[in-house]
């Protein structure tokens, strides 16, 4: 059962201790007319993949960054249909061999060695896919049909067998929309940050839903309330990330806070203000050693550029703010496997139909962060 949000009153929002700005040295790699909204780093740390969050003809591609050379070395393209509006998510298999990209209505599996399309899966009767997660063994991909709310129905989870490129199972979500999904390190649990309306459509809810995936069809286990009622349908829990040990999930709450969840004991443990009085908070990344979380937020004026707040996970406080980034905003972050490099996907929006993207790279060891 979802916890009564009044109980969240026992969980006071942690005070953010902003210790000052840290001007960082940044390597910028232009991505051209790509508006990157999705970024993943290969498990071996050699490559990073950038995909657009919009969908013009120029955006139907993935750009591949060689992390050592810090230059784009390949562009992967894939087929879509007129109903596909934009790239909704991207995830790598555990061995880094396969890159999974979802559009509004399909899953495309790309071979990272060649960029070739290895499989395309179109789940039946989807209104719009919104999130995905890959099983730890790589055998299944979980797709979330997150706009079934338009039909007055809950969202759905589709289970795709990667080997046969077919849908082999499905189950209903407890709420309308899935905003992000993760698989536990032991491969037995599927987590989804969700939002939607109560049965009588009078109260909005935002939660973390947990499913048992030890069998083909996911089985609902529990849910945890993340935001007070009527706060989060249009300002939900976004871009969740999981610590390597599986003990913490971090997500953006209502575009202003960092939500900290203990998925093992099924509780919200902290809500950390990160917006600094009004800026838009967009993306989260966690160090592999679990010591810090990086949170991207806009600045008050476009001239300032976006910043990245560094949250100490032991104290739940902001201990540093990385400044010096260019472009208008940062919709995606990732930390290299050795915790020595922070990769960001940034966007310049001139207010026209054309946006421009870049990879902005920070050597964390050089910054002492």
Task: Give an overview in words.
The chain is mainly beta and 369 residues long. The protein has one domain: Methylamine Dehydrogenase, Chain H, CATH 2.130.10. Helix content is 1%, strand content 50%. The strands form 7 sheets. It has a 5-stranded mixed β-sheet with strand order 1-26-25-24-23, with no helix packed on it. The protein has a 4-stranded antiparallel β-sheet with strand order 2-29-28-27. It comes from Saccharothrix violaceirubra.
Question: What topology emerges from the helices and strands here?
Answer:
Layout (H helix, E strand, L loop, with lengths): L20 E3 L2 E7 L3 E6 L5 E6 L8 E6 L4 E7 L11 E4 L5 E5 L4 E5 L5 E5 L7 E6 L5 E6 L10 E6 L4 E7 L4 E7 L5 E9 L6 E9 L6 E7 L11 E6 L6 E5 L3 E6 L4 E7 L7 E6 L5 E6 L9 E6 L4 E7 L5 E7 L5 E8 L7 E8 H4 L2
Parallel strand pairs: 1-26
Antiparallel strand pairs: 2-29, 3-4, 4-5, 5-6, 7-8, 8-9, 9-10, 11-12, 12-13, 13-14, 15-16, 16-17, 17-18, 19-20, 20-21, 21-22, 23-24, 24-25, 25-26, 27-28, 28-29
CATH architecture: 7 Propeller
**Biggest sheet details:** 5 strands, mixed
- Helical content stands at under 10%
Shape: globular
CATH class: Mainly Beta
Neighbour order of strands in the largest sheet: 1-26-25-24-23
Order of helices and strands: EEEEEEEEEEEEEEEEEEEEEEEEEEEEEH
Number of domains: 1
Protein name: DNA-binding beta-propeller fold protein YncE
Keywords: DNA-binding
GO molecular function: DNA binding
Organism: Saccharothrix violaceirubra
Q: What are the key terms here?
A:
Host-pathogen_enzymatic-act; DNA-binding; 1 helix; about 375 residues; 4-stranded antiparallel beta sheet; mainly beta; disordered N terminus; WD40/YVTN_repeat-like_dom_sf; DNA binding; Methylamine Dehydrogenase, Chain H; 5-stranded mixed beta sheet; about 0% helix; about 50% strand; globular
């Amino acid at each position: 059962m979802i916890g009564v949000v009044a109980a969240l009153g026992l969980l006071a929002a942690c005070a953010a201790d902003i210790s000052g700005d840290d001007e960082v040295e940044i390597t910028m790699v232009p991505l051209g007319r790509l508006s990157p909204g999705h970024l993943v780093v290969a498990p071996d740390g050699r490559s990073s993949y950038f995909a657009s969050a919009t969908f013009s003809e120029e955006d139907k591609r993935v750009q591949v960054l060689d992390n050592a050379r810090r230059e784009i070395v390949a562009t992967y393209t894939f087929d879509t249909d007129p109903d596909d509006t934009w790239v909704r998510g991207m995830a790598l298999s555990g061995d880094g061999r396969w890159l999974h990209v979802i559009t509004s209505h399909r899953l495309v599996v790309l071979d990272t060695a060649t960029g070739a399309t290895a499989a395309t899966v179109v789940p039946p009767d989807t209104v719009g896919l919104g999130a995905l997660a890959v099983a730890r063994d790589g055998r299944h991909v979980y797709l979330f049909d997150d706009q079934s709310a338009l039909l007055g129905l809950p969202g759905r989870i589709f289970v795709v067998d990667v080997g046969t490129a077919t849908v082999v199972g499905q189950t209903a979500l407890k709420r309308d929309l899935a905003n992000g999904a993760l698989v536990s390190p032991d491969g037995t649990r599927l987590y989804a940050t969700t939002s939607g309306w109560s049965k009588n459509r009078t109260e909005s809810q935002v939660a973390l839903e947990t499913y048992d995936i030890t069998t083909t069809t996911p089985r609902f286990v529990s849910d945890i309330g993340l935001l007070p009622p009527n706060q989060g349908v249009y300002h939900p829990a976004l871009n969740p990330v999981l610590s390597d040990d599986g003990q913490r999930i971090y997500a953006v709450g209502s575009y202003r806070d960092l939500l900290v969840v203990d998925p093992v004991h099924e509780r919200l443990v902290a809500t950390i203000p990160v917006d600094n009085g009004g800026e838009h908070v967009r993306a989260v990344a966690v160090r592999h050693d679990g010591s810090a979380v990086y949170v991207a937020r806009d600045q008050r004026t476009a001239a300032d550029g976006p910043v990245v707040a560094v949250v100490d996970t032991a104290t739940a406080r902001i201990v540093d703010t990385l400044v010096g980034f260019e472009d208008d905003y940062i919709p995606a972050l990732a930390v290299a496997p050795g915790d020595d490099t922070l990769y960001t996907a940034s966007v310049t929006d001139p207010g026209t139909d054309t946006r421009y993207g870049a990879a902005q790279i920070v050597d964390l060891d050089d910054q002492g962060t």
